[in-house]
Amino acid sequence: MAPLRVGAQAIAPNPPAVTWPTTANLSGLDFLPPGLQALNNDPGSNPVTLWLERGQQAWSDASTGPSCASCHGPVQALRQAVVGFPRLRVPDQRLINLEDQIQTCRQRSGKAAATDGLENEEVLALSALLHQTAKGLAWDVKAPSTTPADQAVWQAHLQQGANMFAQRLGRMNLACLHCHVQNIGRQLRAEVISPGHPTGFPVYRMSWQRLGSLDRRLRACYSGVQASMPPPGDPVLRELELYLKVRASGIPLDGPSLRR
Predict the structure, then answer these.
(1) What's the predicted TM-score (pTM) here?
(2) CATH of 28-259, one of 3.40.50.2300, 3.55.40.10, 3.30.70.2190, 1.10.760.10
C-alpha cells in the first residue's frame, strides 16, 4: 500500500501493532522498544557509562579520608551484599537501602553530607557501580539473623510494603497492582506497563536526562496517580522497596539501565 500524500507531506499507513509480553517475571528491559534496548546494550553510547566511570573514581578516592576500596577492597567483594538491600538497621529498627548505606559510608570517611540526598551524583555513581557489579545475581533480601524481635519488625515492614502495593491512592484511585499485575504489557501513553520489578536500578530516564534512584521512581508514581508525595527516604518508600525486591526474588539484576 503506497503512502497517502497531502501536499508535499507523505502520510504513511499505520505501522503494525507491537505485541508486548504479559509475563509477570520479566525485567523492565523486556518492555523497551528495540532502539532503546540496543542503546542500553551499547556501552559506547549508553549514558549510564558516565556514572559508572565516576563511580570507579569515587571508589578509590581517598582525598577526604579512607576510600571505599581501603575499607572494602575491590568493588567485586560487595557483589553479594548488593542484593541484600534494603536491610533492617537494628539500633533504630528502620529499613535502609543501598543509597542510604552509601551516604552513611561517605560521611564516615569525612565527606560532607550530600545536600541533594539520594540523588547526589556521587551517591548514584557508586550505586550504579555496585549494581553493575551484581548483574546476573537475583535479589536475596531476607529477615535479619539477629533476634526474633528484629525478625518480627522486618516482617512488619514487609507486610506494610505489601499493603502499600495494594492500596488505592490519589485522585486516580489506583494501586501499584492495578498497573503492574493487572495490566502488564498494555500501553499507557508512550509507556508499556511492565511488572514493576526493580531489577534495573538505578536508571537513566530519558525524561529526567540523568540517572535516578528507585526512591525517585517510586515518588514519581505517587505523582502519576495524583497522590500526596512522600519526601525522599520516607519509611513508606523503604517498605515498598522491600516488598518489591522480595517480590522480585529469583529475577536477575540487569541494572543500571535505561528507561524512557
Answers:
(1) 0.90
(2) 1.10.760.10
